[in-house]
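Response regulator, pasting as requested.
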Amino acid sequence: MSYKNILLVDDDADDAEIFVMALAAIDAKIKSSVENNALKALKKLREAKKLPDVIFLDYYMPYLDGSEFLELLWEIKGLKKIPVVLYSGQSGSAIKEAVKKFKHLKFLKKPSNFREVIDSLQEILN
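Structure tokens follow.
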């Protein structure tokens, strides 16, 4: 597994908890962190000594939506190389447009149960 340091940017505490628990079930060596505010996440990324291997990003959040976050993220030198996975409970037109606009972006619809979260994350992380 190539991703050992994962950042989740998601304002839903329940979804974040399930995500972290699923990562731990997949591999206890995976380090994960959660930020519930996209603006704070950008600030932490700018200041980070060690960057995440991948960012999972909820698209619909207060302060910045996923597209705005990506625009700002990729303006910061050194951060454009971090893979990003849009992680959302919805798959509406805004998300489809973001996936078209940001070529290397992946999309993962939030699964409905814990086993599906594990299976979906394993597929992305392997």
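Note for the archive: The chain has a mean pLDDT of 88.
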